[in-house]
Amino acid sequence: MQTHGGNIKEISRRFRIPEEKIIDFSSNLNPFGPPFRVIELLRDRDKIIKGWTTHPPVFPEELREALAMDLGVHMENLMPVPGSSWVIYKVFEILRPKEVLIPQPTFGEYERAAVAYGCSIREHPLPKENGFQLDVERICGKLKKEDMLIVCNPNNPTGHCLSRDELEELVQYCNSRKCWALVDEAFLPFTEEKGIVKKVEEYTNLIVIGSFTKIYTVPGIRLGFVAAPKEFIETLVQRTPSWGLGGLAQEVGLACLEAKEFVYNSRVKLVRLRDELVNGLNELGLKVYPTFTHYFLVEAPIPLWKPLVENGVLTRHGGSFHGIGERFLRIATKKRQQNLHLLEILAAIQRKKEDLCLRSLKTIGALKNRGLR
């Protein structure tokens, strides 16, 4: 079973399908990335060689300064990190919470990090009848003795997103109970929501993590950031080895932040393409749950993951998330031609199922006429 999207090598090996024949809807990367500025950088042979053969800065100060300006956060409240998943584990290492409350379904690394550091987990199931949306009042009522709450916003796999006011209400309530609030905003750039990162200077219990991977399409670079109270950042710096972020990663991060219009343009195109894809899925009789992002949950009458893979289309299996089963898929919007191909394959699977049902009915009818049933 997949634990993350984008496992093309594993799927290719398992189903004996060449990698180049698989269209990957399981990975929720921006299909329009990386930005041209990053592509230019990665094509510069001399820079690539230099990036691999010279020591990077001991601490990524230049990238930290650029991030601070981009996010509107003071530098002492911010640190670039080698991937947002890396910092999830660091949060547990530094804070050592005894019990964490995690809404489900959500990103699986929170649970893995909690288990790795001996932290008890209490789950808050998100109700299907409410579209798996997180209700602030309900989750506040669920907080008991936990000393950490984790909120993925927008949530993965649902795409639901709390507003900044809703998040602040949640953080304030956590603060009143001496509970840390870890907010993962890795997918926030795909939405028009503002997020809560600027509030880390105001709340002593708030940690916000973000990612370059998804919106800029640079998963191989491993680059993210964490914004938090100054004391937490100071501890994190002390517990991170020198040269913790590679030189090439720092260069790519700076190039991404220079691509000012890229994020907006990507978002505009993805909204249009997502709506077209959702309409097509609805016409095929599939239930699509509301989303703020380019990815979304789909519920089908029958399990579709395996038939899709056998036709060279990879989606995210619902069974890899808590609280949803094998009839669910997470699908990420891609470019129009690929989206149309997905719809065509789904329509073909549907026709095949209808043909099988029709043949079964004819067989049963024939048996009845012959008195064999």
Topology of helices and strands:
Elements: H1 8-15, E1 23-24, H2 36-43, H3 45-53, H4 61-71, E2 78-81, H5 84-95, E3 99-104, H6 109-116, E4 120-125, H7 136-142, E5 148-152, H8 164-176, E6 180-184, E7 206-211, H9 213-216, E8 224-227, H10 230-238, H11 247-258, H12 260-283, E9 287-288, E10 295-299, H13 305-310, E11 313-314, E12 316-317, E13 328-332, H14 336-369
Helix pairs in contact: 2-11, 4-11, 5-6, 7-8, 12-14
Largest sheet strand order:
2-8-7-6-5-3-4
Q: Can you summarize the main beta sheet?
A: 7 strands, mixed
Instruction: Determine the structural class based on helices, strands and strand pairing.
Output: alpha/beta
Q: Which CATH class of the largest domain?
A: Alpha Beta
CATH superfamily of the largest domain: Type I PLP-dependent aspartate aminotransferase-like (Major domain)
Rounded to the nearest angstrom, the radius of gyration is 23 Å
Q: Note the run of SSEs as H and E.
A: HEHHHEHEHEHEHEEHEHHHEEHEEEH
User: What is the total number of structural domains?
Assistant: 2
* Discrete helix count: 14
Strand content: 5-15%
Just name the CATH architecture of the largest domain: 3-Layer(aba) Sandwich
Mean pLDDT: 92
Helix content: 40-55%
Given the C-alpha coordinates, what overall shape results? globular
The CATH topology of the largest domain turns out to be: Aspartate Aminotransferase, domain 2
- Tell me the number of strands: 13
Low-confidence runs of at least 5 consecutive residues: 360-365
**How far from one another are the termini?**
40 Å
